[in-house]
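User: Run a structure prediction on this.
Assistant: Running it now.
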Amino acid sequence: MRISSRWAVGVAALLVLAGCVPGAGPTQPAPSAPVATPSGPVIGISQTPGFEVDRPQLPPSTARPDGFTDAPDGGMNGYLKQAVQWRTCAERYQCASIVAPLDYANPSAQAITLALARKPATATPKLGTLFINPGGPGASGRNMVTFFASKGLEQYDIVGWDPRGTNASTPVRCFDDSRTDAYNQLDSSPDDDAETNALLVGTYEFAKSCWEHSGELLEHISTIDTARDLDLMRGLVGDDKLSYLGYSYGTQIGAVYADLFPQRVGRLVLDAAVDITDDDTVIQAMGFDLALGNFAAWCARQNCSLGSSKDEVLKTITGFLDKLDAEPLTVDDRKLTQSLAASGIAGYLYGGIPAWQELSADLQAAIGGDGADLLRSSDGLNDRGQDGRYGSLFYSFPAIGCADSKDLGVVEAERRWAEDQKKAPIYGKYFGPGYTCALWPVRSAPQFQPTGSGAAPIVVVGATGDPATPYQNAVTMAKQLTSAVLLTYEGEGHGTFGGKSSCIDNAVIAYLTHGTVPADGTRCQ
């Protein structure tokens, strides 16, 4: 998952167990109405709380993102009758592209392109297709196919796809690379009116650029749209029921699918669950505070140079971050700011204990004046390559997250930030106020809490030390989805299936291959 202080919810550019970590999902506010232009002060942009009160009202956009294509003849039937033409790519894998309606309510108007990858089954009897998603929102499912832990699942064709708005599937476009760099240099946890104005103006300009370069794609990029794409793909590969494994934000895709198409649910595994409730008692920042505290306690036990106790280590880290607020570190021609360092530290927390040794060393280096590795970690979460170019994840993440959330405007975002800091004193502070969705130029999709009523049994997996999707999310998801059972991993890191716990792996494989539903409440180490 990737986390961005810019909108204070999580995603992931890294992916589990192959040295990576699955993506996370939207857990915070979204869209709004008229806003002052950035030519003047923007403090107090909205003084009257109300739904979508601060959303910019911008001129129509004529943008046609890459992947826009002509709709097939015959309305929805034209999409349902298309053939998936698989071709060899990357040696053992196959690739294909299909078309889907931009707007399922008007399928004849505009089509978009979806890109898929497949690892063909190597064992019999075949069980059909297992669709996989790494989360984000915005991480690449096609790439995930190349490192997905498929041992024990050889009877499945493993298919990953880039969801609409991402990567090779009609991606969202916003700022160019240099402007994105400048945007990421802003202080995401402002301390005064000048920093707040700068953040509001920068966020407004960012959202405006997404509208100008992506246009109506932003209006049809919600998880509801993606769940419909998933059902379209299920039908095109010839499966009567959906088999699916999603990490982090991918659990939201699965939960929404179960609600929209309960009779088509076959076997669904939802690992590192996001919040699908309307309850903000547990926020993402609490997960990062917990994980950072667990790291600090471990570091002290290892006699690391950051401190001899958990509290001392945390004090060293927060003292370093607070110093960066006024004195960022120079890294070549860039700056490691407080915001980038905080997200860089979070990047290591995704990997759990195996990444902690490296985090300890890189923190020591940064405190000594060398912030290159922390900046590199932050770049990974922001989908910024070493060549300075940004991937689509940085842009698709807010576009999808804001489509899936609701907000009460800028003033409410600031109130929530104050509340967040009480719940999570460290990351609740450094994540800053969630201005992005409050200033997003597109209305959010209909909001609902999925229950999957009528679906076959669903397996929800949660880790007690997950930084990006707190364990409580898995507990509440398993309760809200009426047919779900909960599998708990008592350990660290984001995302569990695929090598962290043989107990979890065996239970998931038995469920996917034989339909054996694990006992609700099973706990593994």
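Residues 4-51 have pLDDT under 50 and may be disordered.
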